[in-house]
Every structure is written in structure tokens, then in C-alpha cells.
Amino acid sequence: MDAATKALPPGGVVDLVRTDGKPLGTWYFNPHNLIALRRLSEASAMQVDAAFLAERIEAARALRDRLFDRPFYRLIHAEADGLPGLAIDRFDDVLVCQSNTAGTDLMEPALLAALDQVLAPRAIVWRDDSSVRAIEGLKIAEAGTLVKGALDGPIALEENGARFLADPVGGQKSGWFFDQRDNRAFVARLAQGARVLDVYCHTGGFAVQAALAGAIRVLGIDRSKPALALAAQAADLNGVAQRCQFHAGEAFAEMERRAVAGERYDVVIADPPAFARSKRDLAIGLKGYRKMTAEAAALVAPGGFLAVCSCSYNVEPTAFAEEVARGIMRAGRGGRVLRSAGAAPDHPVHPLLPESAYLKAMVLQLD
User: Fold this and answer.
1) Among 169, 152, 243, 256, which Cα is nearest to 204's?
2) C-alpha 175: how far from chain center
3) For 41, which DSSP code?
4) Cβ-based neighbours of 202, under 8 Å, separated by 6 or more
5) Helix (H) or strand (E) run with residue 277 in it
6) What is the C-alpha separation between 23 and 21, in angstroms, rounded?
7) 299-313 pLDDT, tens per residue?
8) Per the residue annotation, which of 97, 201, 244, 311 is the catalytic one?
9) Total-model pTM
């Protein structure tokens, strides 16, 4: 990379040309990252303005409106929707934009204008608090910023017929994880008449839907008291508060303590934050998934069900499945895999970026 190239502004839009002069499209460029170029268009000399962004957003909305009958979904999922480095979650008339690259930071004014044009939301939250921004040489905020409209507290959403609350400014990511939508529905079908333990329950996505499906008792565990407060409110909103209990605690310690005490559940869910946020963490992360599976499996009653997940994009599906199998063996259990799945379809995968299929979810029945 020569001095002139290094002097280009991080996130600026450039045309890429082969050495033989053949154009390779419009990209944005950051000299501070090993992934220096991210493609915005196969066409060259594109003006990346509000009109360009509005076209991409409208196409993404049209797809989601075919997939879902309610306006609660991931609207933009980075490269797969033609806007690398950007994620936008839609909560009806509230949008949460997550910027992970210098290019998306520079797009902010045009993006806000495009969102107003396509969706006219009452509020927009801009999140630039992801740790991956450090790789781009960007500042990391402590929480989101309200860049349009006003919010007077948590916002409402609906999923699989259930009602929930999310904190789009201070909560994890956008305040909700739409990627688990289909996995939550599958696990809920197993919960009728069951005792359910939801570890890393966050704001109650798995727990409340299990209770709505007929679970007789649900215990949700998370270390975040604000998230647990929203989970309890969601249980109340759905009329299942009497069958739901939420407890603040560290996941591994709680699982070990309850196993020693002889507690057993018909359905156990373990959906943790990423254990391997970088390749340097991969070996430790894999051991973490093995240990988590073993601890969770020890709490499953014979014939019961175990759902385990990983959102670490550095962990490949085969590696995760291997650690799950080792964890079950460590717990002295046998069983069968009922489901191996990824994210819901509002998180599409670019065909040339299979590593962007970050979510792994496995459901097993244990003997």
C-alpha cells in the first residue's frame, strides 16, 4: 500500500480497478484494517448517497415483508443486503442502526435521510458500541445515541405471538436478538407441561415463549439485572408471570450449584454471549462450549431436551458440534440431535461469505 493510498480517508468510497484496467466496482476503503475494502456495488463510479441507500433499504424491506407479517425484524444484515458493516433492527416505527466500520460511520447523514424516505420512523438509535470497531480504528461508545425522535423507556416488540420489551439505547446489541426467532419457536414446542431452565436468558425470549407454550415452571438466569427486569415485565405482559421466575447469577456457578442440589429440568436452554470473539480466543472458547454443554446436560431430566447455542463467528459449525458431543459425553449422557440450525431468515448469508453464518443452535434429546 503506497503513501497516497494510506492517506485516503478511512471509510471513503473508491473505485477498484484491476492492473489491466478492468473495473471491479465501487467499494469503501479503510487503510487501518486488514479487510481494507468492502464492496458496495459491482458497478463503478456509483454515488453512494441517500438515493443509493434508499434503494438498498427498500429492497431489504420488501424481502422482510414477504417473510414476516409484523414489522419486527432485522432490516439490514450487512453484506447480504448490500451494505457491509451495517446492521439495522426494526421495532415497528423505531430503528436501531449498528455501525461497525468507518464506511458506515461516514454514511450516517445519508443513511438517516434514506431511512426517513423509506420508513419515516418516529425514532432512530445509532449504536457504535461494538468491540469490533476497534479493528477499524474507531472509537467505541458506551451506549447508543438517539439521533431522531424521542423514547420514554423500553420499546415494545412481538415475536411468535409473544410480546416483549427491549432497551435499544443501553441493552446488548440493539436490545433484542431477532436471530433466534425460529429456534425459540422450536424449543417452545417442546415445553408443554415441562419444567424449563433458560440460562443466559437475557430479556426472556426463550423463557417467556416456553411458558406461553404451556411450560408448568420456567426459571431464567442471567447476570444482567436490567435484562431480567425486562424479562419479568414480558412475562407479565403475556400473562405467564406466575409460572416464570428470574434470578440474577453467573451461569456456570448457577448450573453447578443446581446440579449438586439435585435439580432437574425437562428443557434446558444455554444461549450465551460469544465465547470466542477473536481467533486468539478460539481454543479457550471451544473449551467453554464443551464445559457449558456438560454443565447444562447434567441438569436435563432423562428423556428431556437440551438446546445449546453459539454466536461466535470464529467457531465453525463442525467444531461447535464436536464440543457439544464432548460435553454430553463428559456429563455421562447419551441422546440424539433433533435440530441443527442457524439464524432466522432476516439474517441472510452472502454466498461468498459463509463465515457470516455466525449463529449455531443445536437441540438434543438426552437419555
Assistant:
1) 243
2) 10
3) E
4) 172, 177, 222, 224, 227, 231, 271
5) none
6) 6
7) 999 999 999 999 998
8) 311
9) 0.94
CB 128 within 8 A of CB 138: yes
In terms of C-beta distances under 8 Å and separation of at least 24 residues, what long-range contacts does 141-148 make, across chains too? 143/169, 143/170, 144/96, 144/168, 144/169, 144/170, 145/169, 147/108, 147/112, 148/112, 148/116, 148/121, 148/123, 148/124
Q: How many of the other CB atoms lie within 10 Å of CB of 296? A: 27
Residue 21 per-residue DSSP state = S
Compute the C-alpha angle 22/26/31, nearest 5°: 100
Write the CB contacts of 192 (distance below 8 Å, at least 6 apart in sequence). 213, 214, 215
User: Which domains occur in the chain, in start order?
Assistant: 3-41 (no CATH), 50-155 (3.30.750.80), 163-366 (3.40.50.150)
Over 80: is that where the pLDDT of 2 sits? no
- Tell which phi-psi region holds residue 260, choosing left (phi > 0), alpha (psi between -120 and 50) or beta: alpha
Residue that has been written with the C-alpha cell 454443554 in this structure = 293
Residue 206 sits at φ, ψ, to 5 deg, of -70, -45
Asked if pLDDT for residue 56 goes beyond 90, the answer is: yes
Q: Is 311 noted as a catalytic residue in this protein?
A: yes
Give the C-alpha separation, 224 to 136, whole Å.
29
Alpha helices in the chain (DSSP H): 3-6, 50-67, 102-118, 181-189, 205-212, 225-237, 251-260, 282-297, 317-330
